[in-house]
Specification:
By secondary structure, the protein is mainly alpha-helical. It has two domains: 2-44 and 173-374, no CATH class; 53-152, abc type-2 transporter like fold, CATH 3.40.1710. The chain has helices at 2-20, 23-32, 35-43, 62-69, 87-92, 106-111, 127-152, 174-205, 208-212, 218-248, 257-279, 285-301, 314-320, 324-337, 342-374, and strands at 53-57, 80-81, 98-102, 119-122. The chain has a four-stranded mixed β-sheet, covered by helices on one side. Strand 1, helix 4 and strand 2 (80-81) form a beta-alpha-beta unit. Helix 8 packs across helix 14, helix 10 (218-248) crosses helix 11 and helix 11 packs parallel to helix 15. The mean pLDDT is 85.
C-alpha cells in the first residue's frame, strides 16, 4: 500500500512537471480563470442597459409628458419622439428596441376611468432585452399613472401593496451571477481538457511505452493524472475566487470558499475520469477535442447554470441527473450564493462522489485495455 501511494505521488509530480513545460496549457489555465471570467462577468449582462426607445405621443398631455420623462439612464437611452406612421418602419429597421404608442385622449380616459389601452411594441429578436425591458416599461408606466391619479385626488389608495425583497443579490447585478457561473463552466471545460491531454500527451510523445515497463499499475497512473491535474485546477480556482471574483469584480460570496473547494475536488474526480475515458477513444488531440466539445456543451448548457433545470422537459431532467455538472452547479449555487453548509449540500457531494467512482471504474477498464493494446 505504501509503495502504491509513493508511485501515485511520484507519477503525479511527473504530470505537474510535464504541465509546467507546456506553455499553451499554462496560458489556457491562466486565461480561463482570469480574463475569461472578467470579460464575461462585465460584458454579458442580463439586466437592462441603454435600451433604445421611442414614443409616439398622440395625446400630448401632462400625463404623457410625465411618462416620457420617466425613462431614464442607465436603463434607457433618451426617448425619441416619432410619428404614428413611423412605428412599423422604425421597428423593421431595428432603430428601436421598444416603441410606445400613447393614444389620443389617454389622460382624459384615465381620469374618467374608461380603462384606455396603451400599446408597447417590442423587438423580441433579443430575448433577454425584450423580456426584461417589457417588464421595466410596464412597471414604470403603471407607477407614473398611479402617481398621477393619486395627485389628482380622484382615486383612493390601492387595496393591495406589493413589497418585494431580493435575497442573495439585492441589486440584481448580473456580474455576480455571471462571474460564479463562469468559474463553474471553466472548471468543467478545463477538467476535461487537462486530463484528456495528459493521456494524449503520453501517447504522442511515446512515453506510454516507458510507463508500460515500469512497476506501476494502470490504476496508479490514472490516480496520478487525476490528482495532479485536479490540483492545478483547484489552485487556479482558489486564486480566481479570491483575486478576480471577490477582488477585481467585488462579487459578494456568501458561503465558504474552502467548502466549495472540497466540492470542486469531488467534481474534478468525476470530470477527470470522464476526460480519461474520452482520451482512450482518441488517437490525437484534434480527435479528443471533437469528442470533448459535445460533452462540454451539453453538460454546461443543461446543468442548470444557464437556465433552470425545472424548466426543461421531464425526460431531460431525469437524464441530466447522471451528469456530475448538474449536481456541481446546484452545489456551487447553494454554497457561493446562499451560504449553505455541509448539512445542506451533502447529498450533492455524495452523488458527485458516486458518479465519479462509476466513471473512474469505466476509465480504468478502458485505460487498461488501451495500455494492453499498446504493449
Amino acid at each position: 500500500m505504501g509503495r502504491s501511494f509513493k508511485n501515485i505521488y511520484r507519477l503525479g509530480l511527473k504530470e505537474l512537471n510535464s504541465l509546467r513545460r507546456d506553455p499553451v496549457l499554462i496560458f489556457l489555465i491562466i486565461f480561463t480563470f482570469t480574463f475569461a471570467i472578467y470579460s464575461v462577468a462585465t460584458g454579458v449582462q442580463t439586466e437592462l442597459r441603454n435600451a433604445s426607445i421611442a414614443i409616439a405621443d398622440e395625446d400630448q398631455s401632462e400625463l404623457s409628458r410625465q411618462i416620457r420623462a420617466s425613462f431614464l439612464k442607465p436603463y434607457f437611452k433618451q426617448p425619441a419622439l416619432i410619428g404614428l406612421e413611423e412605428i412599423d418602419r422604425s421597428m423593421d429597421a431595428s432603430r428601436y428596441a421598444f416603441v410606445i404608442d400613447i393614444p389620443p385622449d389617454f389622460q382624459a380616459d384615465i381620469m374618467a376611468q374608461r380603462k384606455p389601452t396603451l400599446q408597447v411594441n417590442v423587438d423580441a429578436t433579443a430575448m433577454t432585452l425584450a423580456g426584461n425591458g417589457a417588464a421595466y416599461i410596464q412597471t414604470i408606466i403603471n407607477r407614473e399613472i398611479g402617481e398621477f391619479v393619486r395627485k389628482s385626488g380622484t382615486n383612493s389608495k390601492p387595496a393591495v401593496t406589493i413589497s418585494m425583497r431580493t435575497r442573495f443579490n439585492p441589486n440584481l447585478e448580473s456580474s455576480w451571477f455571471m462571474a460564479v457561473m463562469q468559474v463553474v463552466s471553466n472548471i468543467t471545460m478545463l477538467s476535461l481538457i487537462l486530463s484528456g491531454a495528459a493521456v494524449i500527451r503520453e501517447r504522442e510523445r511515446g512515453t506510454i511505452e516507458h510507463l508500460l515497463v515500469m512497476p506501476v499499475t494502470p490504476g496508479e497512473i490514472m490516480l496520478a493524472k487525476i490528482w495532479a491535474n485536479g490540483l492545478a485546477i483547484i489552485l487556479a480556482v482558489t486564486l480566481s475566487l479570491y483575486v478576480v471574483v471577490q477582488g477585481v469584480l467585488a462579487v459578494h460570496i456568501s458561503g465558504s470558499i474552502p467548502l466549495f473547494i472540497v466540492g470542486t475536488s469531488l467534481f474534478l474526480y468525476a470530470m477527470t475520469a470522464l476526460g480519461i475515458v474520452l482520451s482512450t477513444y482518441a488517437k490525437s488531440m484534434p480527435q479528443f477535442a471533437l469528442l470533448a466539445i459535445p460533452f462540454f456543451v451539453v453538460m454546461n448548457m443543461l446543468s442548470g447554470g444557464t437556465s433552470p433545470l425545472e424548466g426543461m422537459p421531464k425526460f431531460l431532467q431525469i437524464i441530466m441527473q447522471a451528469s456530475p455538472s448538474t449536481h456541481f452547479t446546484s452545489f456551487a449555487q447553494s454554497v457561493l450564493f446562499r451560504g449553505a453548509g455541509v448539512d445542506v449540500v451533502w447529498p450533492q457531494m455524495l452523488i458527485m462522489l458516486a458518479i465519479g467512482t462509476v466513471l473512474f471504474l469505466i476509465a480504468l477498464a478502458r485505460f487498461r485495455s488501451t495500455m494492453s493494446a499498446s504493449g
